[in-house]
Amino acid sequence: MLNLRLPPLKPHLNWLVTVLSGLLAAVAPWWRGPGLELAGLTPDWPLIWVVCWSVRRKAWQGAVAGITLGFLQDALTNPYPTHALGLAVVGILAARLQKQRYMHEDFISIALIVFGMVVIAETLMALQWMWLTAFAPAGMASSPLGSLGSAGPRSLESIWWNHQRNVLTSAILSSLWAPALYWPLSRCWHSQERDLQ
Amino acid sequence: MSRLRQWRRKVGGLLLATLALGAALSLRQTKGSLLVEAYTRLTAPLRPVVNPEEVLRQAATRELQALVAELQHQNRELRRLLQLAEQGPQVKIPAAVVGRSADHWWQQLTLDRGSRQGIKVGDVVVAPGGLIGRVEAVTPNSSRVLLISDPTSRVGVTLSRSRQMGILRGTGSQEAILDFFDKNPQVEVGDVVVTSGLSSLYPAGIVVGTVRAINLDASPAPQATVELSAPLGFLEWALVYPYAQPAASPS
Fold this sequence. Notes:
The complex is a heterodimer of chains A (197) and B (251).
Chain A: H1 2-27, H2 45-54, H3 59-76, H4 84-96, H5 99-102, H6 107-134, H7 156-196
Helix pairs in contact in A: 1-2, 1-3, 1-7, 2-3, 2-4, 2-6, 2-7, 3-4, 4-6, 6-7
Chain B: H1 2-29, H2 33-43, H3 52-81, E1 93-100, E2 108-111, E3 124-127, E4 130-139, E5 142-147, E6 154-159, E7 165-170, E8 175-180, E9 192-195, E10 207-215, E11 223-228, E12 237-241
Antiparallel strand pairs in B: 1-2, 1-12, 2-5, 3-4, 3-12, 4-5, 6-7, 6-9, 7-8, 8-11, 9-10, 10-11
């Protein structure tokens, strides 16, 4: 009886794992554990998740995952500027790399891809901050408290300082931690593919 | 043979007795210094290490706390004599920090108390050390705080010594930049920075930090680098208190 019921359960379980791991990746930066923090920054878990998802999938799937995770991160921080743009680009690029053709799928290449993608995503964030500071009304470039008057636009200096810090620190930390998320997720998705065949 | 042994035993006993008496006498004469020394040495590893600096610092802190309580009391009495409108003791809501920024661009905290416990958007958040930020979003059981170290945060502050006013903006680190209104501010390294009474968003007189460096040539206004006094990276709990903005209140 149990054997008969198990096989149809497994695809659902895989989707559950996917959804839960995505949600966990979105809230993971809240938690600062030993080894997870370098100069006050954590690994960029949402980005690592998007890269892990996208490397074996099509570009549009990567984009959807990137936008979804980006919206989740917007929800947890502030919607302007949006994280979805950077993560969508990351998803598309990671899928476009068509990694199987150039190199083996292993931890090292995942770590390298994550390193590059952090740089791209953070640069897109910085450019968005520039745009918001330069063109948008003051309220948009700031937090929801803008209407209360306790917020102001970021200075260019602080944007690029923040960008530099994120790129240097977070890229190293994220690429070091990427295999920790990639290994269980790829195991799970591989088994899903095998079942579908 | 046995006689020799007996004799030896007697002499030995006598010698031992003399030795014991002599040792006891010498200890008595020296007020047991050897014994005390030996005891102190032997039990040294068992005693807790006392760091005199630490003890002194704790004592000094206690003295200062007592002094602050005393001055607050005097201040309240004097205000009562002057019949100044007294702000009643505010209800502070203690909350634990359950999460930090969810990305690398915003400096935020998540607290485990929300609207169900009486927290509203715009409430002021302080921690051991001083002001840390304002509540920017609440859910029934959690609230999100924008820290004063966030680059978009602006706090109206004043120097407690010279009453020079300015605006403090975060830099994403433990240091913040103070832009003065005055072209020629009276400011010195070490000045204490507190929230300004003219700021309608924060109650006056909450400690924010101390001046670490001054740049009078900065454009468009003189600047000072302020080290925030609350350790924003290590916070484990915070106090939230509702602050009715003077403009909004009926008085």
